[in-house]
Amino acid sequence: MSYNSKCWEPLRKVGIIGVPFEKGQKKYGVSVAPAAIRDAGLIEQLREIDHLDVKDYGDVEIQVSPKEMNVKITNMRNLPHVSACTRALSEKVSEVLNDDRIVITLGGDHSISIGSVDGHYKKHEDMILIWVDAHADINTNKTSESGSVHGMPVALLVKELADYWPYLPTMDWQIPKFSIKNLGYVGLRSVDKYERLAIEKYNVPAFAMEDVEKHGIAGSLNHILQKLDPKGEKPIHLSFDIDSLDALEAPSTGTAVRGGLTLREGINLMEMIYSTGRLRAIDLVEINPAIGTESDRRRTIEAGIVILKAALGAHRRGTAPRDVLDLPLQTKKKHEEAKDRKH
Q1: pTM confidence score
Q2: Residue 122 needs a FRET pair 20 to 30 A away by CA distance; which of 91, 144, 159, 173 works?
Q3: Sign of torsion over alpha carbons 275, 153, 79, 117
Q4: What is the rounded CA–CA span in Å between residue 84 and residue 8?
Q5: pLDDT for 58-89, tens place per residue?
Q6: pLDDT (tens digit, 9 = 90+) per residue, 281-322?
């Protein structure tokens, strides 16, 4: 079944937002990923995609007031910092969408998606969310084993779980309105018991790696799109954690899990979402250049850039030059010179 609705065409303009934030988890390094990805040539490579219009909106500014710094919530580390970051990001994402651009959010850890999804929802309330990750990230502070907020963003976003949270000072700006009925997972392979319970309770389409192996990446994504958006009418938010890829493909990440997606499967997934014409926001999170060797770092960043390029229209088969119908011919003089060299 085709999901490319007649009223949707892929946008040819994108806006990049950097989020150098790592307090949603415990390891140093993920905050330098936006700079490292840019330094690796992301913007230049994106601009090579059929003259894609790329604008860099810079990094979000994160400011926590002294009063907010004193806020403490049981089993929820660094909530004031997470709140300040995601609030600023939500506003920036809405700004980019209002400029009629696809939003690329470069993390940073996965807690930042609280802000990116919130900002997208404020623009498109009918959006669907595809969460590509080794982890479900749907813990509450009562069910989390680590207390790290990068394992909680989905639970904070969906309205169906609002009653399972205590009052969260500093998070008054974020009212959970997004429905879990518009959520789908791809790539799961490390899911906590209460996360599994939530997925089953709300019948969330969740394709773990054994399901991907059985149905293939195309079958898995098509099932999710058919369930969440059978008419092909809704904008798509894609939240891509680099640890959804196998650790051999992307070793420089804080919570790597073996047995994940191949890079080829990740690219195929992105190409399919691009072909719908409905992609409006994509998060790339959890790349940590401080983990592993220089080779690991390069491989992981390159994987992330390839994933983004595939989501924005890069073709593995190559792209023919615009408005050119034939190969270039030699001039008569060069033809004679080439003929003389043969003799």
Answers
A1: 0.93
A2: 144
A3: positive
A4: 34
A5: 999 999 988 899 899 999 999 999 999 999 99
A6: 999 999 999 999 999 999 999 999 999 999 999 988 877 777
